[in-house]
Design goal:
single chain, disordered N terminus, elongated, alpha/beta, five-stranded mixed beta sheet
Length: about 325
C-alpha cells in the first residue's frame, strides 16, 4: 500500500512545483505544556509548520511533532494528511513545511533512486542522511519503528507448524509443497523486492496455485479466517496484526528493505531553531514497531482520532502535559 502510493506520487513529482499537494492547514490550538520535552520554551517565538502523508501512522507521527513544538513554545500550523507522498516531502524540501516523519527505505529507493536497499538499518539511515543534505533536508536520529513488508500467520493456524521465521516457511514449503499458501496483493506478487525476490532469497518455489491475489484490506481477515491462506502479506506496523492475533514471521535473512521512521527537517529551519533536534531525538528513541502497531490499532481498529491518539501517548510518556 505504501509503495503503490509512492509510485503514483512519483509521477506527480515530475509536474510539481515546490509545495505541490500542500493543503491549507489550521493552527494547533491544543492547550499543552512542557513535560520532559520543551522545558524553558526553547521554541518561543517560532512559527513552524508540520506535515505528513495521508495514512493513519503518518498523521499520528506528524501530530506528535506538532504537539511537541507547541509545548516548547512555538506557534504551529498543522498541514498533516497531505495526499500523495511527494507533496509532503517537497513541502519540507522547499520550506513550505518545516518537519515530518519519513521512512529511510522510501527515501533511499523512491526519492533518491537506488535499486538496492542497504541491509543495516543505521547504514541505511546514514546514507539517506548524507544524500539528502544537498536537498536542504536534514534527517534526525531514526526510530526503530519499521513499516516494512512481512508475512504473518494466525496463531491458530500456526499451532501445527510452530513457524517463527521466513526460513521456517521456506523449509515447510520444501517439505510439504501444498502446505504454504499465500494471500498477497498484486504489486507484492510481481515486485523484485516483494514475493519473487523473497522466494529467491529464501529458496522457495511456490506453485502459482498456492498464491492468491487480492486487495490489501482483505488480506488481514483472510489470514485470520479458517480454511483460507496459511500466511499473508502484511505491513509490520499495521494495527490489525494485534487485533486479529497474527504472528509476524521474522525476516531472518533481512531481505525486505528497512523502512525506519525518522524526523526530516528543513535544514534552514533547523539552523534557525536548533532546539528542534533535542526535542525530537527523545521522541524517536521511544518509537518502535510495537508502539506503531498499538497506536495504529487505536485509529484503524477502534476508530479513534489520530491527533488525539498522538496527544494521549505523548502525555502518557511524560513528553508533554495537557492543560
Amino acid at each position: 500500500m505504501r509503495r503503490r502510493a509512492l509510485s503514483a506520487g512519483l509521477l506527480v513529482l515530475l509536474a510539481c512545483a515546490p509545495g505541490c499537494g500542500l493543503k491549507s492547514g489550521s493552527p494547533l490550538v491544543d492547550d499543552v505544556r512542557p513535560g520532559s520535552l520543551g522545558q524553558g520554551l526553547p521554541l518561543k517565538g517560532a512559527s513552524l509548520t508540520v506535515t505528513s502523508k495521508s495514512f493513519s501512522e503518518q498523521i499520528i507521527l506528524g501530530s506528535m511533532i506538532g504537539l511537541v513544538f507547541k509545548a516548547a513554545g512555538a506557534e504551529v500550523l498543522d498541514r498533516t494528511n497531505i495526499q500523495g507522498s511527494i507533496g509532503a516531502r517537497e513541502a519540507v524540501k522547499s520550506g513550505a513545511a518545516d518537519a515530518m516523519y519519513e521512512y529511510t527505505g522510501t527515501a533511499w529507493i523512491t526519492y533518491l533512486g537506488h535499486d538496492e536497499p542497504i541491509a543495516d538499518p543505521m547504514e541505511q539511515w546514514r546514507a539517506v542522511r548524507d544524500a539528502d543534505l544537498r536537498n536542504g533536508i536534514t534527517w534526525l536520529r531514526p526510530s526503530t519503528l519499521d513499516n516494512t513488508y512481512a508475512l504473518a500467520i494466525s496463531r491458530d493456524k500456526n499451532r501445527p507448524y510452530g513457524l517463527r521465521t521466513l526460513s521456517d516457511v521456506a523449509a515447510l514449503s520444501r517439505r510439504d509443497p501444498k502446505a504454504v499458501t499465500l494471500c498477497v496483493e498484486n504489486e507484492f506478487a510481481s515486485r523484485d523486492d516483494g514475493l519473487p525476490g523473497m522466494e529467491k532469497a529464501y529458496g522457495m518455489d511456490l506453485p502459482s496455485a498456492n498464491i492468491r491475489k487480492m486487495d490489501t484490506g482483505i488480506i488481514y481477515t483472510q489470514i485470520a479466517k479458517p480454511g483460507s491462506c496459511l500466511l499473508g502479506e502484511v505491513y509490520t506496523t499495521d494495527g490489525r496484526i494485534a487485533s486479529l492475533d497474527l504472528q509476524v514471521m521474522e525476516d531472518d535473512k533481512r531481505f525486505f528493505p528497512n523502512y525506519d521512521a525518522a524526523p526530516v527537517v528543513n535544514s534552514e529551519a533547523l539552523e534557525r531553531w536548533p532546539a528542534i533536534r533535542s526535542l525530537l531525538d527523545p521522541l524517536s528513541e521511544k518509537l518502535t514497531t510495537d508502539v506503531g502497531r498499538e497506536l495504529n490499532a487505536k485509529v484503524d481498529v477502534e476508530g479513534e482520532d489520530p491527533h488525539e491518539v498522538a496527544k494521549e501517548w505523548l502525555v502518557k510518556e511524560g513528553f508533554i502535559r495537557a492543560g
